[in-house]
């Protein structure tokens, strides 16, 4: 019965609104209510007449600057407000509405109807009820009207009475943040987060901190992500989302065993609370059993159109047989790979669905978006695994997977490691083919080298040791380091505590580069400083620090600051480079390696002391 009333009410209110908009006069509405209204409420004329005045009183009118023209409710013996001529008690006062009449209904419907300058003026009036903004914004978002949804939800939070904001505002807040992200309004996103963190209700502050933590993880800023997580834990200590976020954070930091232990802690704690449903408890149990696999499964299940083909790809990669050998020759003292006719045929079949070319002028990148056609090429690849006998196919797949999943450590075991093992068989075959370099610009060598770079980056967060081993194998073939892998190997060695080896690789790299040469080597400089500090070579570390400061004067300040202003730096996943000596270069180094400096006892204090003495 309630569902019938809701349908009738929405139909009646929509018709009433159309009648009101004709001239915004009450008699026009009542004429419509008597003549056409009954058809919207099951033929009940008395209900139609009783409902119309209620809706009139809550309808915003453009002629009144979007205020409502409230009718005074008549007394029992006064003339009824429907202009029937009868007393209120004998007319509308004798009618009982079949269900609840939301006081914001006509505002909500108006917000759905208005466009352009009218909508803009209505929102600017500040008269729209929060609940009407909330519902109209959510409806617009669900129907794909992203611009309208953003406009309406912005107004909800711009004019918010934070103490009276309904708790249903939480999904609206998250949707608005997503809209800002999707549509490139990054400053608005940051401003909204700051506003909520400063003034918002506690339930929104926790959500904001959770979102801030995830944003920092996306940007590889592990130190800021950890800080946001701690604040979120203080704001919402019993939020189940924190279990999920802490598992992600620990996996990003490379602490797989701790991720398991903390997931078990959250399972015990939240189970005792008795407030979670069966699905939430099962998710926490799965997380406690295997955080990485659970997060990977959750990610793939969230892929509406690609979930099934991606799971199929995981299955395919887990069952891959070793690849056939490649055609490699030694020519002019160098090792050269040339694709065979068989491999070219496989790539042509794959590319028919893939359709996007690899960018020949970039280390990693495409001349288009490969995921637009993923619904075509993924199923074909899963049904034709022999296509992965072609290095060109492996190259395209590795680049595509890294562009989408390379920042997610839990995706490395199932997506990147099987491809890396396949590539390594080929690279070892090339190494055994003879002496000489394997240069980027010879034959089809770039296919293998580019695939290697993509897989090194894809595994960097979730399979650090395998990532480093593959990088070292590539460096043994490409000793000119055309891929820029030495810095990545250095960072991994420092994370593993292999400081002597880290120092050696930094010295080799810096010895071959003039100090005044404008190359982005900040990671090498600062990696050398950290290795020397850990080895107790403080005088040499101070000298190395001075060289690093000459290269980039921003690095130490940003590294030591707790909450510095971010620089606008493209994600490291894209392979984008930054200008040497810039604040952007220093910020990129901070996001990647500050956690190592902070976790090294006394390192940041030593940095500050050395700089203050100079």
Automatic annotation (TrEMBL):
Entry-linked SUPFAM superfamilies: Sec-C motif, TPR-like
Superkingdom of the source species: Bacteria
InterPro entries in the cross-refs: SEC_C_motif, TPR-like_helical_dom_sf
Protein name per its UniProtKB record: Zinc chelation protein SecC
Pfam families in the record: SEC-C
Signal peptide region: none
């Amino acid at each position: 019965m309630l569902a019938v009333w809701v349908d009738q009410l929405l139909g009646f209110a929509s018709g009433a609104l159309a009648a009101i908009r004709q001239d915004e006069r009450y008699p026009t509405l009542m004429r419509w209510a008597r003549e056409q209204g009954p058809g919207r409420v099951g033929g009940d004329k008395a209900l139609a007449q009783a409902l119309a005045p209620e809706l009139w009183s809550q309808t915003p009118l453009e002629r009144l600057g979007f205020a409502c023209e409230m009718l005074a409710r008549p007394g029992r013996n006064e003339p009824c407000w429907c202009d029937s001529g009868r007393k209120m008690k004998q007319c509308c006062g004798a009618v009982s509405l079949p269900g609840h009449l939301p006081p914001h209904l006509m505002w909500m419907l108006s917000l759905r109807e208005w466009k352009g300058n009218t909508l803009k003026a209505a929102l600017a009036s500040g008269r729209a009820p929060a609940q009407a903004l909330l519902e109209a914004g959510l409806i617009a978002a669900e129907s794909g009207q992203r611009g309208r949804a953003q406009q309406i939800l912005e107004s909800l939070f711009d004019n918010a009475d934070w103490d009276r904001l309904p708790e249903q505002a939480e999904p609206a807040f998250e949707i608005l943040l997503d809209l800002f992200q999707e549509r490139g309004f990054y400053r608005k996103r940051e401003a909204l987060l700051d506003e909520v963190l400063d003034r918002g209700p506690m339930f929104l502050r926790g959500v904001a901190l959770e979102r801030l933590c995830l944003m920092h993880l996306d940007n590889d800023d592990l130190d800021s992500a950890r800080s946001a997580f701690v604040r979120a834990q203080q704001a919402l200590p019993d939020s189940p989302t924190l279990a999920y976020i802490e598992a992600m954070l620990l996996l990003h930091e490379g602490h797989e065993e701790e991720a398991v232990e903390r997931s078990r802690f959250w399972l015990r704690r939240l189970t005792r609370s008795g407030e979670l449903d069966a699905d939430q408890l099962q998710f926490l149990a799965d997380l406690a059993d295997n955080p990485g696999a659970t997060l990977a499964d959750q990610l793939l299940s969230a892929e509406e159109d690609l979930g099934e083909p991606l799971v199929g790809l995981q299955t395919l990669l887990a069952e891959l047989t070793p690849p056939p050998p490649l055609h490699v020759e030694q020519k002019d003292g160098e090792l050269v790979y040339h694709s065979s006719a068989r491999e070219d045929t496989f790539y042509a079949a794959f590319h028919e669905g893939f359709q996007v070319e690899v960018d020949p002028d970039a280390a990693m990148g495409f001349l288009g978006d490969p995921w637009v056609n993923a619904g075509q090429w993924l199923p074909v690849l899963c049904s034709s695994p022999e296509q992965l006998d072609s290095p060109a196919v492996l190259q395209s797949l590795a680049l595509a997977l890294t562009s989408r999943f390379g920042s997610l450590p839990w995706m490395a075991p199932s997506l990147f490691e099987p491809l890396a093992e396949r590539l390594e068989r080929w690279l070892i075959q090339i190494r055994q083919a003879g002496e000489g370099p394997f240069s980027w610009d010879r034959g089809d060598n770039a296919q293998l080298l580019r695939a290697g770079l993509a897989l090194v980056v894809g595994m960097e967060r979730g399979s650090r040791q395998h990532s480093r081993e593959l990088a070292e194998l590539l460096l043994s073939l490409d000793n000119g380091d055309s891929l820029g892998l030495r810095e990545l190997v250095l960072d991994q060695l420092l994370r593993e505590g292999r400081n002597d080896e880290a120092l050696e690789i930094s010295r080799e790299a810096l010895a071959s580069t003039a100090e005044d040469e404008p190359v982005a080597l900040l990671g090498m400089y600062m990696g050398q400083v950290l290795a020397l500090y850990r080895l107790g070579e403080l005088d040499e570390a101070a000298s190395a620090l001075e060289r690093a400061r000459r290269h980039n004067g921003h690095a130490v300040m940003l590294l030591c600051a707790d909450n510095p202003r971010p620089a606008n730096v493209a994600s490291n996943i894209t392979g984008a480079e930054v200008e040497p000596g810039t604040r952007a270069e220093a910020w990129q180094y901070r996001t990647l390696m500050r956690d190592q400096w902070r976790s090294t006892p006394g390192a940041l204090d030593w940095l500050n002391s050395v700089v203050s003495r100079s």
